[in-house]
Design a protein that fits this description.
The chain is an all-alpha fold and about 170 residues long. It has helices at about 5, 10-20, 25-65, 70-80, 90-100, 105-120, 125-140, 140-155, 160-170. It contains nine helices and no strands.
């Protein structure tokens, strides 16, 4: 079989050399179906590793969150909201975002605003969403500045104000 350098000018040979170097074997042996199956198996292994990593992160962040660590509280909220490493639980995410927000953690305030704006896990409340986005934006959270700017651009819960939008988006 050609080395990768020797195979550089021949696409099929180059692909076979890359596959061999990656531990996937010779294309002539694997064939199209088996090659696709090997890629699927690798993708599933990566997903399994990621899921295990999220489960471990959930356990570690939960311990830290219970001690009052605002970053861990926010991270735990993210995992609960997305269902990564645990069963999705928006009400649980809300609880941890609130705990982190009470300590002034702006990313948690932004996430609370999103929950209130969308009515996920809480009654939809644009006024609360605006209040959380405003606090987070005042703390310098760029995502909240953008989200609040969108509200001013659309006049959603606040008066339509293009100047305010520009100011928020160019901080």
């Amino acid at each position: 079989m050609a080395t990768p350098t020797q195979a550089a000018g021949r696409p099929q040979a180059r692909l076979q050399a890359e596959r061999r170097d990656a531990g996937l074997g010779d294309l002539r042996v694997l064939g199209g179906f088996h090659a696709a199956h090997a890629h699927r198996a690798q993708a599933l292994a990566v997903l399994h590793d990621r899921h295990a990593a999220f489960e471990q992160a959930f356990q570690e962040w939960q311990k830290a969150a219970l001690t009052g660590d605002k970053r861990a509280q926010h991270a735990l909220g993210l995992l609960l909201e997305s269902g990564r490493g645990t069963k999705a639980d928006v009400a649980g995410a809300l609880k941890w975002y609130e705990a982190a927000a009470e300590q002034g953690f702006a990313p948690a305030m932004n996430n609370l605003a999103m929950l209130y704006a969308d009515g996920r896990g809480v009654k939809k409340d644009q006024n609360k969403a605006i209040a959380y986005w405003t606090k987070a934006a005042e703390a310098g959270n760029a995502t909240a500045e953008f989200n609040l700017g969108v509200q001013y651009m659309l006049g959603n819960g606040v008066p339509s104000d293009k100047k305010q939008t520009i100011q928020l988006w160019t901080r």
